[in-house]
Amino acid sequence: MSSKRTFFLYSMKIKEQTRKLTAGCSKHCFEVADETDEVSNHTYGKVKLTWFEEIFEEY
Description:
Number of domains: 1
Keywords: Hydrolase
Distance between the termini: 20 Å
Helix content: over 70%
Protein name: Chlorohydrolase
Strand content: under 5%
GO molecular function, one term: hydrolase activity
């Protein structure tokens, strides 16, 4: 498989998982994340990474 095709498939997987995440998360969820980002960007980065790690572990 070519590297361009692999990258495309990987990008599509991320988009699909992001859609699933946003569909299953309430507006309140994002408001809390935004407030956390304002207080401590370092903490927000860890939270965001954890969410994506959990998503990819499921699939």
